[in-house]
Amino acid sequence: MSGAHGHDVTDGAGDPPLELEHQVLKSLLGAWALAACSPEETAAMEEHLGDCGPCADEARRLREAVGLLHPAETLDLDPGLRTRVLESCLQQRPPRIPVPQWATPYEAEAARLDALLQDIGDAEWHAPVRLRWFGGTGPTSRRTTVAGVIAHLLSVDGLVAVALGLDDPLGSATAKTGTPQERTEAYWRASYFPPTRSVRMPWREQSHSLVRTVSFTGQGSRKLSVPYGGFELPLRDAMLDRAFECWVHAEDIANAVDYPYEPPAPRHLSRMIDLAARMLPAALAARRQALRGSSGRTRHLAAVGRPGRCLRLEIEGQGGGEWLIPLDSPPLPASLQPVKPRGAVGSAEHEVAHVALDGVEFCRLAAGHVPPEEAAAGQLGDREAIRDVLFAVASLSRM
After folding, report:
1. What span, in angstroms and rounded, lies between the C-alpha atoms of 154 and 357?
2. What is the rounded (10 degree) CA torsion for 360, 141, 149, 107?
3. 267-395 CATH fold
4. Which of 182, 218, 339, 374 could form a disulfide with 175 if both were Cys (CB 3.0 to 4.6 A apart)?
5. pLDDT tens, 183-235?
6. Which CATH number fits domain 4-92: 1.10.3470, 1.10.10, 1.25.10, 3.40.1000?
7. In which band, very low, low, confident or very high, does the pLDDT at 4 lie, cut at 50, 70 and 90?
8. What is the mean pLDDT of the chain?
9. From CA 322, how far away is CA 270, in angstroms rounded?
10. Which CATH number fits domain 101-256: 1.20.120.450, 1.25.10.10, 2.60.120.10, 3.90.550.10?
């Protein structure tokens, strides 16, 4: 085979070590510390470290840093350490199969949750947790445990797994519908005993399989969609939805075991907010239809693709930005994907209200963890439109 940097090597036992320049070896220090070098590069590096004091010192420092990444360590470490080490290494050696950017929020949130689970004791897996969401007319909840929350994530992430052709974690268990709640209830019913910490490994292996599969399929998976029972999401948005749920439920667990937990990285938070903003027109139409009946008349209804009244949603802080939310989209058939632009079009000329919310507050409202009436929002303009939008944001939540 052909070795790195154009040197030809063979598998013979008597092959001499690679002869690499100092600068090349220095650039490989990060990969060597992570044990990511080829055998030939490793041999050349070890020989070099015996003769070069500065590189030996740097190698020792990097190995110590990598040692801090082992899962047995506490979560009280600098949360940016792993990212800094890996980014430094990948600048020198990009991954052969990179994770698509649209899947990185899920990868990051699953890794953060897994680190939290690694750090809690056996008894804490049975700590009570209350899953909360907004049930259309008001808050609702379901009591479970830390282990039950991971079983919930395993069950719902299974929707993506099935869409990708992977095994369904429900196995022979059946759900009345494919909704997240029904799948979770089916998994809980099929368990002989309440879930324990043993559920961590199936969830962890499934999350790794999801990331690995979308990384290998790449552009080939763009046309896939994931059914959620009453609607579908494109695979890209489904992965983002699962990242959001992973963060929300990680916070539920952290609160239950009295552990500090930070929001997602701003670039990931921004994508989660954008997904919710794109789903709002359909959520508004569904809410209006539920309140007034399918045959009810709506005086402001706008035609598909035409500008109508809109609300300016301003998100402050991390992941911030502005979105024009159409208020008068016609109801969409349940089979249509709610994030596709099939309704009215937002136009600044037709703006009737303005709402400002902190990014994390907005996400907690979308998770059903903050009642719409209590959302800390700056408001200006049409009060009815503002109320409709805040309630529609809350209606995005589910078990």
Report:
1. 31
2. -30
3. Nonspecific Lipid-transfer Protein; Chain A (3.30.1050)
4. 182
5. 999 999 988 788 899 999 999 999 999 999 998 887 667 679 999 988 899 99
6. 1.10.10
7. very low
8. 82
9. 11
10. 1.20.120.450
